Amino acid sequence: MVEHIMDRRKFLAGASALTAAASMPSFSFAQTASDPNFTPALVGNPWDPVRNAMVFDAMGEIRDTFTDELIEEILLAGMRAIAVTCGNPRQQNQSVEQNYQSALEEMLWFDRHIAEKSKYYLKATKTADIDRARKEGKLAIFYLTQNSEHFMHDLDNVDAFYAVGQRVCQLTYNYQNMAGSGCMERHGSGISRFGAELIEKLNEREMMIDLSHANVQTTLDAIDISEKPIQISHTCCYDVSPNPRAMPDEVLKNLADKGGVAGMAQIRTFMTLERFGMVGIYFDHIMHAINVMGIDHVGVGSDRDHRRLEVTPEYLDEMQREQGPLFDVRRVPLYFEELNSPRRMEVIWDELIKRGLSEDDAEKVTGLNFYNHYKNLIG
């Protein structure tokens, strides 16, 4: 799931979203902030700059609408690294040429945006860039795609996108592509012949493989085929909350056994349909993943915006444009209200300590495990 696609991507949605919006069921705003069960964003203890604990969001959002004040709050909460989605992941709706163009244009846009916001951001291609961000109090931004169709089924394009700055490639989005199958496909395959060749090429090029959104067979096949550890940057635990976007224990264990890392996403609807007061289940997923995988293999991949969001008509319009005609507005908010803040990583840190983790182990979850994973694979 991608809760965003930046304002400059609105043209990708097309008129179909507007048509679909007219047919969607009505949504009452009384179901949100004015609901007696509404639970506002929690406030954690301030991040300690002396301890300088690693905070790394393995799949999050940076928008062009972020104000300087919002970015400063993200940094005050300790965030020093993030991987962002480049291009439209719903690539089954486009030609391969459009997929290529979409991913390339967004990477080049990020290059410009990072340069414009160099007071806060820096482009990252190695973990040395995270080290620099930690010293300078900035945010290191890695480029990730949530599909592999932008390579246009040409392995040489892996080299082309590596040169632009891509360091993470998700093999599939929700549906079947040339590499394998997504989790929403009715009769999806495992890894295809081309997918196996792509995995070999990504290993050779030192571009990290991500299996978020893949179906179980594609994920198990990729873990088995890859000579290098793999990540699932934004998922949750099927054995806690059955959902197509979650991974079963079998996958999580195999991933860890091969040295991989899984990031726990913060999308409420992956875990519960109860709107309010349910943030505890998110930490249940983190702790379950730790129990299955071990403390060195679990992190955070929020799949989330960093703004303080309110469910307004404007927000619903934004979500409809970005999610497309299949999106059901009755699912909003997609997030946990208790984590609806640019400083939510402070809340996560506090809760991990309450759940019995030491500070060293809490830091592994909030960022050190993904830092080590990146360092192992891309230097």
At CATH's second level, what is the architecture?
A: Alpha-Beta Barrel
| Domain unit count | 1
- The secondary structure category is alpha/beta
Q: Sheet with the most strands?
A: 6 strands, parallel
Helix content: 25-40%
The N- to C-terminal Cα distance equals 28 Å
- In total, the number of strands is 9
Structural notes for this entry:
It is a single chain. With 379 residues, this protein is α/β, with parallel strands linked by helices. It has one domain (7-378): TIM Barrel (Alpha-Beta Barrel), CATH 3.20.20.140. It has helices spanning 16-23, 68-76, 96-116, 127-136, 156-164, 193-205, 216-225, 249-257, 280-293, 313-323, 344-354, 359-378, and strands at residues 56-60, 81-85, 121-123, 139-145, 166-170, 208-210, 231-235, 261-264, 298-300. The radius of gyration is 19 Å and the shape is globular. The protein starts with 15 loop residues before the first helix and ends with a helix.
Summarize the structure.
Helix content is 38%, strand content 11%. The chain has twelve helices and nine strands.
Task: Note the main attributes of this structure.
alpha/beta, TIM Barrel, 11% strand, 379 residues
Could you give the topology of this structure?
Elements: H1 16-23, E1 56-60, H2 68-76, E2 81-85, H3 96-116, E3 121-123, H4 127-136, E4 139-145, H5 156-164, E5 166-170, H6 193-205, E6 208-210, H7 216-225, E7 231-235, H8 249-257, E8 261-264, H9 280-293, E9 298-300, H10 313-323, H11 344-354, H12 359-378
Parallel strand pairs: 1-2, 2-4, 3-4, 4-5, 5-6, 7-8, 8-9
Helix pairs in contact: 1-10, 11-12
